[in-house]
Amino acid sequence: MTQLSQLDAYFTAHRDEHLNEMKEFLAIPSISSLSEHKEDMIIAANHLATLLKKAGMENIQVRDTAGHPVVTADWLHADDQPTVLVYGHYDVQPVDPIELWHSEPFKPEIRDNIMYGRGASDDKGQVFMHVKVLEAMLQSPEKLPVNVKVLFEGEEEIGSVHLDQFIIDHKEELKADLVVISDTGLYAPGKPAVCYALRGLTGVQINVQGPKGDLHSGIYGGGVQNPIHAIATLLASFHDEHGTIQVEGFYDDVRDLTNEERAAFAELDFNEDDMKAEAGVSELFGEQGFTYLEQTWARPTLEVNGVFGGFSGEGIKTVLPAKAGAKITCRLVPDQDPVIIVDLLRKHIETHKPAGVEVEITEFDKGKPFITPMDHPLIQAAGESYETQYDEKTAYIRAGGSIPIVSTFDEILQAPVILMGFGLSTENFHAPNEHFHLDNFDKGLRVVSDYFTRIKK
Amino acid sequence: MTQLSQLDAYFTAHRDEHLNEMKEFLAIPSISSLSEHKEDMIIAANHLATLLKKAGMENIQVRDTAGHPVVTADWLHADDQPTVLVYGHYDVQPVDPIELWHSEPFKPEIRDNIMYGRGASDDKGQVFMHVKVLEAMLQSPEKLPVNVKVLFEGEEEIGSVHLDQFIIDHKEELKADLVVISDTGLYAPGKPAVCYALRGLTGVQINVQGPKGDLHSGIYGGGVQNPIHAIATLLASFHDEHGTIQVEGFYDDVRDLTNEERAAFAELDFNEDDMKAEAGVSELFGEQGFTYLEQTWARPTLEVNGVFGGFSGEGIKTVLPAKAGAKITCRLVPDQDPVIIVDLLRKHIETHKPAGVEVEITEFDKGKPFITPMDHPLIQAAGESYETQYDEKTAYIRAGGSIPIVSTFDEILQAPVILMGFGLSTENFHAPNEHFHLDNFDKGLRVVSDYFTRIKK
């Protein structure tokens, strides 16, 4: 009987016990954004440390940061085998609007083999899954086939504010050959996915100043530049009518999709009508020459997130306003550099600035895009591990969003990041009635066990 | 001794008495917009009726409307001479911020031959001036050289809400050969002006609907049209880079300035640096081929008064918003028709609507532009009357703003409107420390007397 068969039996035998333990963990209201839960964050971190201890991990530490604690542990007895850093987060989103929950967010309960409770899917349920994999392996005679370090933070839902610095400060201690994160989802129910690329983020705010104060549009209108006309002209200059970005050099560093990637995306089940319904639009709209998945996963964007100026109340006010402005963010893809992109934006704005107004630009935070190439052996191995448990072929996907901490791992630790998620996009993370399908928990335990075994040299 | 010389002597002899009476009238806090002053509005209307009675006017009536009263009177014994309708308003603006007043707004006082108090210039002081002209003429043996009707309203500062209907309902009673209004100003201190044209007004609100709800810009960005991009594209399509309006047919009905008008404007003392300082801009900006005065007086505009969409708080929110919108008003010049212009706007928006969004248009109120041609004898006569009292030549000017009631007189009574103002733009109407230079009050009494005499057949 192989170790994997033994583990399978172990997971089956201990299932009830594990689900009860998961409930205990989910019951701690570890809401990182609310100061009244500061003590609960410490309780959750210590609870996690206890679970790691029970699992047989070593060097378990609950470590203070300027914010909520970081929990670390390791098991490093696999000699020259690869070292895996497992990252996850034990903090959760607030629960409002509480009245929409069918059961209490911090009294987890199972209905129809689905665990309901805040954090069930994002991310305490998936963190717990990893701890149980470690426990199962460490109780078996063969122990872990690879070296493992864990890093669980309590600030993911508030932007991982102190984790970048923690990783920089403990770069040597956290050194690993790969980073495994289970904080994303399957492609669809029953269809596993390895996400190998994320978009980065950068942005600017444009403030346009016209006259010193608001002017009467009758007295001055026609002789003074209107800051709203100026901001509209600037914003309209960013795209052509098909949505292609017109900022000179913007696409220069974009890594082209490989034929294999395009083929992989094209094979995925994608229904345009379903997507229109999901997004709530009557038609999709994007850069020509690319499919919807290519547009949203592998092409950069320049999105105006907000525009403001003049009077926006009810009715009419004949004002020629003093100010107008807009907030812009760009989603970036490999190998775009946020610093270069902001420079190009500045140049574009400078070049297209209409006469008669002053324009001021302020910069937002920057996050680099991330990619571990689709054909990387550690990515392909993850896909194969999924396929031992799921009947469908693994989807190799990208995601359009940004997970800043992934770029940090990529950049500081210089290790490939493997996003192996077991959630579903319909599981209401960040919303009432968050849940986690327990068949994916069951499969996840086995997929991760297989993966650790598979990447052994 | 002519009647005008007698009147001159009369005004001089009664000056102190008149100024005391003006103070009594200004002391009534006739703020039309504040319901706690409803009773004061009635007191002011009755006070005005008493002044008209003392002046020797006939058929004096304080007439109820759905809002504040209208005061009417007449003197119609000049046989086949022209009939003048004198219009003015006895309501005033609120006084906030009260702490910025150097003397109490409703305890008028004279300092350096300037009357300080709310309504001194706009418009109770000028209404009072007209009443004193009537009084002076009616006490003289020759009486009035023309027939006179007066119409003083109490709702000008709140948009003359009930006056349009009053004029329509009493069209026959108000019938006149000309309408004289003293509610505007001189061109500059010592430089008289007759304003012979005003711009009209119309406008629309554009609401752009994209997705049903706000979307995550990472997940959907690149594949869904952003309503802010759409509104920016629409707004940018309205003008070229020089500010010329690009709506097809927009300028078709614009009556060209005559050579005489352009020459008259060019002769006026206009200092670009002073205007930049006044408007608070570093450069002026407008349609090419026209001077600043031509741009703001005699050319139509399309001004975006407000734009809104997405997130406008501090920092960043990576949203692809569901909605965006803008409020637009056009200042119109003779012979543009607001109804036609709104039609052209609708067509333009329809033609330029970007893909992937729905656009809804709602219309604002419409006001027609007004003009009594500069060379009209009644306009020229007004200029000549000014020149009997002022050392400077009369400026024949237009104004960029809109006075909706002027269009109503023009349209319903079909009588030329003569705007003979004696205020100054620096006299803080609508602001703390409103005042009225009494040398212009003195001259105004004589100018209006001269005008009534001059237009006699």
Automatic annotation (TrEMBL), chains A, B:
Pfam families with a match to the protein in the record: M20_dimer, Peptidase_M20
Organism superkingdom: Bacteria
InterPro entries assigned: Cyt/Met_Dipeptidase (IPR051458), Peptidase_M20 (IPR002933), Peptidase_M20_dimer (IPR011650)
GO molecular-function terms, A-Z: metal ion binding; peptidase activity
Keyword Transcription regulation applies: no
Gene Ontology terms describing biological process: proteolysis
Domain named Peptidase M20 dimerisation: residues: 196-355
Keyword Metal-binding set for record: yes
SUPFAM superfamilies associated with the record: Zn-dependent exopeptidases (SSF53187)
Keywords, sorted A to Z: Hydrolase, Metal-binding, Protease
Listed PANTHER family: BETA-ALA-HIS DIPEPTIDASE, SUCCINYL-DIAMINOPIMELATE DESUCCINYLASE
NCBIfam families noted in UniProt: PRK07907.1, PRK08201.1, PRK09104.1
Name of this protein: Dipeptidase
Originating species: Kurthia sibirica
